[in-house]
Amino acid sequence: MRISAYALLAIAFPLAASAETRQPTEAQCRQLVGQMVQTMRTTPPPAQRDKDADALLARVEKTVQENRAARKSECDSWAYIVNAVTKN
């Protein structure tokens, strides 16, 4: 029995779409936050960073620390980082 390409697409497309729209878990967000903060600390090297980069890093670290103290979602911290980095 031969399955057409259209039938395969009809089966695969909803699976792919649902995988793309799935929200990250709390553990995944925590990992993303940790990795991004570490990257921001080391890239570029501290001696080559400008004041804006240092200020952004300080804001991000402060927000992550405050969110963790308030037991907010790590995904809230991740959203803050993404927004802060893309707005600058």
TrEMBL record:
According to the UniProt entry, where is the signal peptide? 1-19
Q: Does the keyword Signal apply?
A: yes
Keywords, alphabetical: Signal
Q: What is this protein called?
A: Secreted protein
Which organism's genome codes for this protein?
A: Usitatibacter rugosus
